[in-house]
Amino acid sequence: MINSNHGADYESVLRDRKGQAEAFDAIGDRYDEAFPHKEGQVTAGDWLIGSLREGARVLDLGCGTGVPTARQLADAGFEVVGADLSARMVELASGYVPGATFHQLDLADLRPGGPRDLGRFDAVAAFFSLLMLPRAEIPLALRTVRHLLVPGGLFVLSMVEADVDDFAIPFLGNTIRVSGYLKEDLHKVIAEAGFEIVKETSYTYAPAVTDVPPEEQVFLCCRRCD
Ligand SMILES: C[S@@+](CC[C@H](N)C(=O)[O-])C[C@H]1O[C@@H](n2cnc3c(N)ncnc32)[C@H](O)[C@@H]1O
């Protein structure tokens, strides 16, 4: 049974991020090497490109190195803003995608009434970033995404299908903590956050490193319900 956590407020569930930030600072330079094939992500990016008006404003939330998504969206002529917890990721992304603007921040800081405000967006992409949160925070992060979007705004995300909560895994010589849902539970959490799922694809993905097992990746293309 999943906890959809609608009533919870951020302050009561927020966890210390130091471990995650340090791990991604250390992983940054090798991340793209470990995950070289990103067809699913690029296809979801293409859906955004085909669905948005010219010059739309798009946020890449947990942007990592900015490759492929921030770059793909900037190349398509959108106004791209990227945000990531890891200072090293932000540094790499700023170098790889000079046409976009990047911010180092915790996505929780963008919550309604939170300490950071980047304005509103026509679309938000969150590829493999919400899975870095404990489950108790995921509905709150989705509520934040909804708040960041204009009415009818688009949201693309990917998760790994797994029934785990704040689970420590070895990752490129570091330890990161991840959460996931089985597909039906993921659908429920997304719908409860006020999104309609327009398109869904899944892939079995074998990363190009040995300490990461094959995973089932789920890509969802969604629209904010008003
Ligand atoms: C698995 S990587 C995915 C990066 C990129 N979206 C991609 O698909 O290549 C997850 C990213 O989320 C970032 N992240 C983790 N927790 C975050 C948080 N609370 N706020 C913002 N970014 C976060 C990490 O620093 C990392 O760059």
Structure in a nutshell:
It is built from seven helices and nine strands, in the order H-H-H-E-H-E-H-E-E-H-E-E-E-H-E-E. It is α/β, with parallel strands linked by helices. Bound molecules: S-adenosylmethionine.
SSE arrangement:
Layout: H1 10-13, H2 18-34, H3 39-51, E1 57-61, H4 69-75, E2 79-84, H5 87-96, E3 101-104, E4 121-127, H6 138-148, E5 149-160, E6 167-171, E7 174-178, H7 183-192, E8 195-205, E9 215-224
Parallel strand pairs: 1-2, 1-4, 2-3, 4-5
Antiparallel strand pairs: 5-9, 6-7, 8-9
Helix pairs in contact: 2-5
CATH class reads: Alpha Beta
Largest sheet, order of strands side by side? 3-2-1-4-5-9-8
Global outline: globular
Low-confidence stretches: 1-7
CATH topology (level 3) name: Rossmann fold
Helix count, per DSSP? 7
| Share of helix, binned | 25-40%
Distance between the termini: 27 Å
CATH superfamily: Vaccinia Virus protein VP39
Sheet with the most strands, sense and barrel status: 7 strands, mixed
Number of strands: 9
